[in-house]
TrEMBL record:
Alphabetized UniProt keyword annotations: Oxidoreductase
UniProt key word rRNA-binding: no
A Pfam entry, by short name: adh_short_C2
Annotated Gene3D superfamilies: NAD(P)-binding Rossmann-like Domain
Lineage of producing organism: Bacteria, Pseudomonadati, Planctomycetota, Planctomycetia, Pirellulales
Encoding gene per record: kduD
Name of protein: 2-dehydro-3-deoxy-D-gluconate 5-dehydrogenase
């Protein structure tokens, strides 16, 4: 079988959370390009969810939508239950819930801390557990993919709870992968770097993004499609022998300050 055949996702049904825009949408569209049918989730009242669904259907794929607040336990349960009812099964999960709050450690509000942990870590646990139970019950050798972040490794100032939640998600990825060995369910994560999403556009001005993007190792910030293409690979049969991995997809962002031209020049040796 050729590599092209192994990367195809024809006949697979994939649940993607946060699929209205940004990284979630990028993953959903690229999985659809690879042949998967999609169950898309976004928050209740999302204006973007229907638009993403139309794009998926325009590619010739089946597509269902589920509005559910996955920041809550009840929302996670509702999402997975309705996804199975609509699509009949789930072969692939791309778990993408997250909430970030930039604030200094000494001033970080307790309620915001709880929201970051609930949304970024607990939601991933709850959704993946429900989907994994479905896969085990149906004897599906499925794929579970978390969207993590390079901040799970990089201690950025004013980002402590979010980075900690992503670090916990990375460890969860590895732990679940081990437990699901007997069921041949691949469990991996992608750690995006700086990605051009609506959230980043709200955080940073257009001028900041246009000025700093070219200074990165790849000469630009990443796109949701960059993450989506990596996701399509990791949930395909081409990645059958990959599990328990956290894959950075960051264009070298983690090492942006490691280049020799950024360091003082060494004195000539004696």
């Amino acid at each position: 079988m050729s590599l092209f055949d192994l990367i195809r996702l024809d006949g697979k049904r994939a649940l993607v959370t946060g699929a209205g825009c940004g990284i979630g949408k990028g993953c959903a569209v690229e999985l659809a390009h690879a042949g998967a049918d999609l169950i898309l989730n976004d928050r209740p009242g999302s204006d973007e969810l229907a638009k993403t669904a139309e794009e998926i259907r325009a590619l010739g794929r089946k597509c269902w939508t589920v509005e559910a607040d996955v920041f809550s336990a009840a929302g996670c349960e509702l999402l997975v239950r309705q996804a199975i009812e609509l699509a009949g099964t789930i072969d692939i999960l791309v778990s993408n819930p997250a909430y970030g709050k930039r604030c200094g450690f000494l001033e970080f509000p307790a309620d915001e801390f709880d929201k970051v942990i609930d949304a970024t870590f607990k939601s991933g646990f709850r959704i993946s557990q429900a989907v994994a139970r479905h896969m085990v019950e149906r004897e599906i050798s499925g794929k579970i993919l978390f969207v993590s972040s390079v901040v799970g490794e990089m201690p950025f100032e004013r980002n402590g709870p979010y980075g900690s939640a992503k670090a916990a998600l990375n460890q969860l990825t590895r732990s679940i992968a081990v437990e699901l060995f007997p069921h041949r369910i691949n469990v991996n994560a992608i750690a995006p770097g700086w990605i051009d999403t609506p959230t980043e556009r709200k955080t940073f001005t257009k001028e900041v993004i246009e000025a700093r993007g070219p200074t990165l190792p790849w000469g630009r910030i990443g796109t949701p499609s960059d993450i989506g293409r990596a996701a399509a690979f990791l949930v395909s049969e081409a990645a059958d022998y990959i599990t328990g991995v956290v894959l950075p997809v960051d264009g070298g962002f983690r090492f942006k300050d490691m280049r020799a031209d950024d360091e003082p020049q060494e004195a000539d040796p004696l």
